[in-house]
Amino acid sequence: EGHSTDYQTKIKLKELIELGHSVLLADFNEVGSIKEDNINSLSCLALDIDSKENPIKLKDMIELVKNKFDITPKIYYCTFSDENEFKFRLIYRLQEPVDVETYKILYKAMAWKLGKYIDNQTVNPNRIWAGTNKKVILNEDDEPITFEIIVKLVKSYSNKIKREDKKKGYDGRIQSLHDITSPLGERISKNCANFSAASFSTFAKISSK
User: Fold this and answer.
1) More confident residue, 158 or 146
2) Is the Cα dihedral 174, 150, 30, 121 positive or negative?
3) With helix as H, strand as E and coil as C, how does 115-173 read?
4) Could you report the per-residue pLDDT of 66-116, keeping only the tens digit for each?
5) Rg for the chain, CA atoms, rounded
6) Are 23 and 131 in contact (CB under 8 A)?
7) Which of 43, 103, 154, 171 is 20 to 30 A removed from 34 (C-alpha atoms)?
8) Is residue 200 within 8 Å of 186, Cβ to Cβ?
9) In this structure, how many other beta carbons lie within 10 angstroms of the beta carbon of residue 96?
């Protein structure tokens, strides 16, 4: 029943985007405010691709992401201004909802892995995503972002941050932190040796700089 409800939600999301409506991908605690601190959780992650310097076709980007993370989008579509499938959005389903700080780190980690194709300015979880006048594809056989994929990405990304910190003379900053505030962050920390004593929320702030 839960799966059916989730599927109906994705169908509704597809219809709204196809009608040109802008959408939010976060679930909020209270109606009327889209501020970040009002977000309860997120169950989708969207990637926005429209780089003029590093153009890539929609189908090629889907394949690239699939090869790197073994995931495929639930929804994808070209933007209003697209002409040849070089400006598009890929919306990936998260196997379980995540909190704001986990979303930010996950997004940063994916953007780091995908490099030149991703706009790091779209990391904010309360971002409003514009609809389109193009066809919107709902993929019934999508492969979601699992907890295991999140753990792998966070572990890899934290190593990258630590290497950068070491070069800047900040070695040990992550390991010295404590006071984990995120339930999901605590679960991730148990699966990542890097976070044995790290504050997930503080790491989120560090990794955003």
Assistant:
1) 146
2) positive
3) HHHCCHHHCCCCCEECCCCCCEEECCCCECECHHHHHHHHHHHHHHHHHHHHHHCCCCC
4) 999 999 999 999 999 998 999 999 999 999 888 888 898 899 899 999 989
5) 17
6) yes
7) 154
8) yes
9) 12
* Cα–Cα separations (whole angstroms), residue 146 to 150, 194, 207: 6, 20, 21
Structure tokens at 172: 């040990």
Amino acid at position 1, single letter: E
Alpha helices in 40-127 (DSSP H): 58-69, 100-114
Q: Say what the pLDDT of residue 197 is.
A: 35
State how far the Cα of 36 lies from the Cα of 183, in Å rounded to an integer: 18
CB 163, CB 173: distance < 8 Å:
no
27 vs 41: CA distance, rounded Å: 5
Give the global pTM. 0.81
The two structure tokens encoding residue 9: 């939600």
How many of the other CB atoms lie within 10 Å of CB of 31?
7
Across the strands, what pairs with 88?
49, 78
DSSP letter, residue 78: E
Task: Give the pair of three-digit tokens for residue 115.
Answer: 């490099």
d(C-alpha 72, C-alpha 53), whole Å: 25
The four Cα atoms 193, 194, 197, 199 give a dihedral, to 10 degrees, of -130
CB 101 within 8 A of CB 188: no
